[in-house]
């Protein structure tokens, strides 16, 4: 079965398809603190840290949280898509980082030396890998001793109120990303590699008021983006019926969380000038 986890080269050549899903979450999520600031405020970052954002996409995260992270970060933006890297670097060039580097890279075979980064961030991307454990092993390798890996992903109950519509396309009625690399798998693989993992869930839900945004989001990836006219018509009718039952509103629960692991070992002391 096709899903959001397939066809990465086409899906993420640039940010256009991703934008439909981003809009749905951005416009209709109800939370005391927005998703990006919530993540940023929990990251154990220090001024001057060397940070790798693998699977960085268009760097919406960094543009949104520049006031919530320490100054002078040495940031490397990496993605398998050259188009994403180009967009990410352009978006971040004027932001006050200590240094900024863009690099096309595969998460399971990264072109970085061992023990290179104080933190690696992998936001909603490990479910795209054929072998998430191999990606985590690479992230462990490039982290300095005592460095941190921060991973975000979705739980099995995420947005069930809209994924049930995708049965029209022959999909299962749940978040496809969580089926591949959800909460349980993240805990299992990170603990197996690092020996430790902590978890926090973003307290949020959705109140969606425009059925067109649901339609656009769920037809931005397979199998919805290749559906027949008959399937799309049935899909629109299913969405419309749900909004009618909710008197113009679709209430949806979210399960989106942050996992953090720390690499064992003794950090190397950096000689200080006399």
Annotated CATH homologous superfamily? Vaccinia Virus protein VP39
Strand content: 15-25%
Give the SSE order as H and E letters: HHEHEHEHEEHEHHHEEHHEE
Please provide the count of β strands: 10
CATH topology: Rossmann fold
Shape: globular
DSSP summary: helix tally: 11
Helix content: 25-40%
CATH C-level class is Alpha Beta
* Separation of the first and last Cα atoms: 62 Å
As a whole number of angstroms, the C-alpha radius of gyration is 19 Å
Structural class: alpha/beta
In short:
By secondary structure, the chain is of the alpha/beta class. The chain has a single domain (8-262), classed as Vaccinia Virus protein VP39 (Rossmann fold, 3-Layer(aba) Sandwich).
């Amino acid at each position: 079965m096709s899903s959001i986890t397939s066809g990465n080269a086409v899906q993420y050549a640039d940010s256009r398809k991703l934008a439909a899903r981003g809009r749905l979450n951005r416009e209709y999520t109800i939370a005391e603190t927005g998703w990006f600031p919530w993540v940023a405020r929990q990251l154990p970052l220090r001024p001057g840290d060397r940070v790798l954002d693998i699977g960085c996409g268009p760097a919406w995260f960094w543009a949104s949280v520049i006031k919530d992270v320490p100054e002078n970060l040495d940031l490397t933006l990496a993605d398998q898509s050259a188009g994403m890297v180009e967009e990410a670097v352009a978006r971040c060039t004027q932001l006050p980082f200590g240094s900024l580097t863009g690099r096309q890279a595969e998460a399971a075979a990264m072109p970085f030396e061992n023990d290179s980064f104080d933190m690696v961030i992998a936001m909603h991307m490990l479910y795209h890998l054929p072998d998430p454990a191999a990606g985590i092993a690479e992230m462990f390798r490039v982290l300095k001793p005592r460095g941190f890996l921060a991973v975000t992903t979705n739980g099995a109950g995420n947005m069930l109120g809209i994924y049930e519509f995708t049965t029209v396309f022959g999909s299962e009625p749940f978040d496809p990303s969580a089926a591949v690399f959800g909460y349980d798998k993240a805990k299992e693989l990170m603990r197996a590699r690092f020996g430790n993992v902590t978890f926090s869930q973003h307290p949020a839900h959705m109140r969606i008021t425009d059925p067109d945004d649901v339609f656009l989001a769920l037809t931005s990836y397979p199998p919805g983006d290749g559906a027949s006219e008959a399937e799309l018509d049935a899909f629109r009718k299913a969405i419309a019926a749900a909004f009618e039952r909710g008197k113009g509103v679709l209430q949806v629960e979210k399960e989106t969380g942050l996992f953090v692991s720390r690499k064992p070992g003794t950090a190397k002391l950096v000689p200080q000038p006399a």
